[in-house]
Amino acid sequence: MPLVFEWLWLPRLTRGLWVTLQLTGACMGIGALLGLLLALARVYTRGPVYWIASLYVQFFRGTPLLVQLMIIHFGLPSAGIVLPAFVSGLLAMALNTAAYQAEYFRGAIQSVKAGQMLAARSLGLSAWQAICRIILPQALRLVIPPWSNELVYMLKYSTIVYMVGVADLLGEARNIAARNFRFLELYIVAALFYLALVLLLTVAQRVIERQLRIPGLGVPRERP
Amino acid sequence: MAPLLRTEDVHKRYGKEEVLRGVSMCLEPGETKVIIGPSGTGKSTLLRCINRLTEPDRGRIWLEEQEVTARKASINRLRADIGFVFQDFNLFTHLTSLENVRLGPLRVRRLGRPQANRTALEALAQVGLSDKTKSYPAELSGGQQQRVAIARALAMHPKLILFDEPTSALDPELIGEVLEVMVRLAKSGMTMLVVSHEMGFARSVADEIIFMEHGVIVEQGPPSRMFKAPTQARTGEFLRKISELYGEAD
User: Fold this and answer.
1) Closest Cα to residue B12, out of B52, B47, B55?
2) I want to staple B26 with a disulfide (CB 3.0 to 4.6 A). Which of A31, A112, B3, B242 is the partner?
């Protein structure tokens, strides 16, 4: 078997890796903001706001990410909206993960005990103050594990952007292999890159969780 | 003197069940009244209506000359003046004792941080927990948690404090420390409305006992008369029953 790690690949793969990281990071950030708003709408509002938020979540969780990407990148141009491939990819990923994150946030908010809100309001805090100072600090700690799962998912799902021609990690691997025909080696190297990233994120999650841990909040870690 | 708290014909219905069927009562400054009665007779609902954690369907409530039930009442400002102590404490899980007690003075009263700290530390000292300022609720016993909750109410310098069965979630050996704090508060002139079946507490500090059943006040009067010569047969029956359960009032 020829040398797997030819040094010539690394700069290009690193460039692809950077694109993957940008896509994942940005979509998780946007998704967190949008998802949190959706969750608050679903928990604390009624009427049209609630229905719009629910419809959004249903639609983006109920259709494949790839279809959403196709609509945005190849469908929207018929409506006169042409987006660069990277932007299409990011938009699809962000809109999609927002729906999933909305559900994680909603679950976390609802698992904060009802008495917390009552106690906050009984002190004279406004509903918004109570949400920001009492509910969210607890809910955001509870949401760390499912949110990290979502992060790992999105990191891996970001590979779909190569369908619209974005040269992410997988895209670069494929481009290189298309010239030197070492598909096996390159795809394995790409896989190892993803694996390393996922492991890194898992460790980061543990550290953050431990840093933010408060006695009595969340599930105690069991030690057999 | 004008009453500090007055309720007039308060009604509340949950679906088909009418929990409060016209409750009128008042509380003078410095008074302590204890509400007793079988479970499900609207005692807790009445307390929650007073600071509108529950919206009454009908009737009016005043805190001094301000109408709590007025459509335009600034309810957050009124709630700041009405302390509330819950049965299951409801301390903020993610905050230490000090942070729990400081939150109101800091964010509602908008005192500066140093002054909010001072107020909170004073309140914690009042309930005898100066050594637990850095503990999280989960690190405290039930009795300690309830004392922090009382401190949290005290730190707002409220005009009155509502206690909703403050000791009924506690192990028997922890009830004493909470009652002790409440007795001291009552004797220091705090205005208190207490839903509780602790007859010892009622007898030693209550100015009046209010007996509620089926959403109405059946009878009210000073403990001495209520225990010795209740005018309603139901009152005597109920007092006998809880005295058996909770021990004689002494």
Assistant:
1) B55
2) B3
